[in-house]
Amino acid sequence: MEPLPLKDIHLPDSVTFWPPAPGWWLLVVLLPLLIFLCRYFYKRIRRQTAAKTAAKLLSAIRRDSGADARQTLAALSALLRRVAISTAPRSDAASLRGETWLAYLDQSLPDAPFSQGPGRCLADGHYRQTPPSDAELEALFELCERWLKQQAKKR
Hints:
Elements: H1 22-63, H2 69-87, H3 90-93, H4 98-106, H5 113-116, H6 121-124, H7 134-153
Helix pairs in contact: 1-2, 1-7, 2-7
């Protein structure tokens, strides 16, 4: 009997790093998209939650009939500032005062009601000899509601 001419065992080529498998390509495409979508929805939910909570607080301030008009102004100003800090970068809204604060509030509304309308009493209401009237406060409450609705819609 003649020996068979057998060859030695051939091992397969080693697995190379490049090109990656299709799953890795899919991960490279989907991971940044997933990060972008998570960030977008997080900001949106945060903004809407802040606006809804602020709307509830605004109605609570409005219902508090025993409060002084100057205390009401202070509460409204603090509420608007808290919402602005929650919905925008802190560096944009936290340090603003006076005219720059009113101009910041006017950015989201078309007719500049804070600088030139009923919102003006947010800047000078604390320094007046007489407190704001009920009609001025009512107009300010409506303006604040309008501003809060814009903040919830803003992208």
